[in-house]
Structures are given as structure tokens and as C-alpha cells.
Amino acid sequence: VVGLQWGDEGKGKVVDYTSGSFDAVARFNGGSNAGHTIVLGRRTYRFHLIPSGIIKGKKLLVGAGVALDPVILSQELRLLGRQGFRADLMVDGRCTLVSPAEKEMDGFLEGLKEGVALGTTKMGVGPAYAIRALRLSPRPVDLLSGRFDFSRLRRVHRQLTRRAPDLEGWARLSRRLLRGRVGDTSAAVSEINERGGSVLFEGAQGTMLDLQFGTYPFVTSSPSVASYASAGLGVPARDVGDVLGVVKAYTTRVGAGPFPTEFTGPLERKLREEGREYGATTGRPRRIGWLDLVALRYAVRLNGARQLALMKLDILARSKELNVCVAYKDGHGQSSNYYDFIGNVDRVKPVYEKLPSLYGAEFGGRVPTAAARLIELIESETGARVKLLSYGDERSRTLEL
Ligand code: IMO
Ligand code: MG
Fold first, then answer.
1. Ligand 1 site-directed mutation target among 48, 132, 209, 259, most atoms within 8 Å of CB
2. E strand or H helix at 157, and its extent?
3. Is the distance from the beta carbon of residue 123 to the nearest atom of ligand 1 less than 6 Å?
4. Which end of the chain is more exposed for a tag (fewer CB within 10 A), N or C?
5. Res 247 pLDDT > 80
6. What is the pLDDT of residues 10-56, one digit of tens each?
7. What would the pLDDT profile of 370-382 be if each residue is shown by its tens digit?
8. How many A from CA of 196 to the centre of ligand 2?
9. Which residues are known to be catalytic?
10. Residue with the nearest Cα to atom 3 of ligand 1?
11. 38 CB less than 6 Å from ligand 1?
């Protein structure tokens, strides 16, 4: 399950909804920059690192591709424990770790970008992956062995932020928090697979935030396309099955960066309030725009998503107007191929198709005509099939097509 936009598409609900028939749910990318919200009855559960399969009591795996903050993980486990959820969780011994030093560096680096800051979640995820690429950080297995030499890492942090973080103190605490939970998640997936079981791979962020393929440099710091499930978990590519892409019926984005279909005004405020479009990690108001089929076609192809989950139709139905972007144009011309504008997505103008609005539509058990028209357009433009419709937070407010 992967996001096809700029994150917050509703992956948490889709994972919760579809995980029933799976033996385990595994995260493969990102870290506590992600924010997953699941609503059950009157209760809302919010978490960042723990795979969304926890609500259904699934076995949980956090793969090597994840940036893991042990302190946040244990806070989440404790909070969910108090709400009655027992986590059967294994984190991979080869994860990238996030310490308070990387969190501090995240804020520090954002400060350097004066005016052109990315608007990161300041969870230290980007700096942690960067330090990992420099081969300076310990992995969970290194914390457990207790043989890691922090002196080079401390020097780098001191040079960059003029502070000397207490890395040994953090390492002691993290060792305690992770003990008994570290293992080989790649082997765990393979064992489940060999006995004929199945694992749901849960992506964080969205394709347009992918480090390579997204709206660089306004992207996150790890890959978020489906193919990374294989690399991030240590699972052979041929063992990764079908891809379900999650797409919101309109678009949101938190943080800075190109957003061709963004709009402002009363409808922006209405959709934000009714859709509660505030970041689950930072509380920041999300920017709002129309569905962008140029970006969606690109994302569907990159992920090989044959199936789509279309989310938040109930919120779109609060609007008396419905526009869908079918092409971009700039001074040189018009195209529906995203790559044609890859260097100047910040300057393009969207070309809209006006559709009959979903205003006031009722979803109880069947697809309203206006929604059927929207689904037709999405399917014909992307070649993927809309398999799941969501028209409310609740599990029950879902239609399978
Ligand atoms: P979920 O899993 C929405 C955005 C941040 C920022 C950029 C870089 O909930 O869909 P980072 O902290 O990753 O270095 O910030 O990426 N971002 C997200 N936006 N949903 C997410 O995750 C996000 N994770 C990162 O807002 O613009
Ligand atoms: Mg989110």
C-alpha cells in the first residue's frame, strides 16, 4: 500500500481495512515523519512508526529501510499499550537510527535555508539517512553489541551544530528500549512467505515526496515508491505482489514545494476544516488543491499500481465545484506528461476538466452518479482500476468495487 500524492492520502485507513487477510504488516521506508490516523468508533489512534496493522493485532515488522527513533517507538508502544493494544513487533537490526542529535540537526539545517526551507517535520529523518550514507551511525545491532565508537559521529555533530550531544546516554537508553525487539525482518518475511502466508507492505509518505522521483528538492529523504518495499525490507523483487495506490479525491501537501493545483479562499478553508487537513505529525495546516491527474498518472506508472483506493469522497462532496487537472501548460505548450515539466513544475498552470460536483452526494451502499463520472476519468487517465472508495473515517464507510 503506497501513497500516490504528497502523503496523507489515507494509507492508515487502507492498511487497517485491508490487513485482515495478512499475517503481518511491514513498514519499509521513512520514519516518524509519517503520521497515520485510524478512527474506530469514537476513538482516534495516531502513530508514526508502528505499522498500522497494530489495530487488527497483526504481527508487525519495521524493515531496514526505516529511520527508527527508539524513543518515539517506545512512547508509541506505551501509549497504544495503555489503549489496550499489544504489539508483536520486530525491528530490523540494520535500521537507520535517529538520535536527538539528528533531530537538532534537522532544525539547524532548515534554519540555514532562510526563506527556502523545505518545511521538514523536524523529526531528524533526513539527517539520519544522511549520516547513514556517511557511514557514521550505529545500527540497532551495534547498540546491542555495545561496541560502537561514537567519537567520529560526535565530532561531526559538533562541527555542524556546535554542540556535543550525549550520544552514549542516548545509546544506553535506546539499547534498553530496543532489547528483545531487534531481529532479521527480511528473514521473517521470507519465512512467512515460505509457509504460504502473506505480508502487507505499508509505505509512508507519497510518490511525489520520493527522494528521486518526487518534486525534488521539496521531498522527503527516503524512497517512497512501491519498489522500495523490496530493497527496504530485504525481500526479493519477485516476491512483492500487487500494488494498491492510495489517492485522495483532492490533493493536500504539508510543507513547501511545487503544487500546481493548489487553491486558496473559502473552499480551501472549508475542505481543510471538514477534512481535518492538519498534519498528524506537526499539526501544520495542509495546503489544499484539486486532484492532479498529471501527477497521478506519473505516480501510477512509477509504482505499477493496478489498483487504487480513492479516499475522502465525502469531503470532496462538500464542494459545489469539481475540477480535475488533466494537463499542465507553460509558455511553451501543454502536455499531460509530468516529465515534460520536471524542471519547472513550480511554474506550470493546471488545465482543468470541470466535472459535475459531488455536492450533497450520499454514499450509503452505492456509488453516486457524479462519483462514477470521476472514477471513470481517473481510470481512463491512469489505466488503473479504482477498487476501494472511502467516504468517511470509519471502516464501515468504505465501498469495494
Ligand atoms: P505520511 O506517511 C505528508 C513532508 C514534510 C516536508 C517534506 C520533508 O503521513 O503520508 P521530512 O521531515 O520528511 O524531511 O520532510 O516531506 N512529509 C510528509 N508530508 N505526509 C507524510 O507522511 C510526510 N512525511 C514527510 O512535510 O514537506
Ligand atoms: Mg499522514
1. 209
2. helix 151-161
3. yes
4. C
5. yes
6. 999 999 999 999 999 999 999 999 999 999 888 999 999 999 999 99
7. 999 999 999 999 9
8. 32
9. 8, 36
10. 7
11. no
